[in-house]
Amino acid sequence: MNNLLSEQGLRDWLGGSIKAFISFPPLGIIIIAMIGIGIADASGLIGYAVQRVIKHAGTWQLTSTILLLGVLSNIVGSVGYIVLVPLACRAYLAAGRSPLAGLATAFAGVAGGTHATFFITTYDIVIAGISTSALNLIHPKLSVSPLANYYFLSASVLLLVAVGTLVSIKIVEPRLSLSEQVNADNIAVKPSKENDRALKAAASLFVASIGLILFATLSESGWFSPCRSSTISKKRSH
Fold it and tell me: At 233, is the pLDDT very low, low, confident or very high (cuts 50, 70, 90)?
């Protein structure tokens, strides 16, 4: 073991800090996500889309939706921390509410709702395997199904959203200072046919891009197909 407080330890730590930071695995995902969110926000896409979505949504609906998305985002790992938190701030900002409340709401949903979901995930399979190993010490022929925790976790989603919404609206937001409240008129983009057409065009392009990626991945002759990649590798080896 090396003493990090020694002269050599401090030298190695300071000299390799940049390299260690660059080699941090989540860094690339965070940078790409923030670049995408920044471009979408600067172009007005996020602001206008959020305003159109929350136009008929009340205080309770917006908070509950953010919390529900935060809880369910655990299906795809830690994406909620990277994507949902800044989007929640922007949504609250567009609604004329404090973005800090949106940040706290999204973070509470993602962090507090870990593994609570309506779907079966790899976590259920892992826990079922561990529980089965422990159960076999007593009953070797019995096993624990991955569905063992399903009803508890799925019921937890509704409970977490309900309690989180109540706490956020009744306790968190009232404690924020008045200086943190934002006037939505200063950042609002007036609805227009031109903006609606641009929003539809962006949504259509997004759907088309997803379809193209799926086709390129699932089709045998697609660009991203594993079969095509193995065929190209064999040709190069010969």
Answer: low
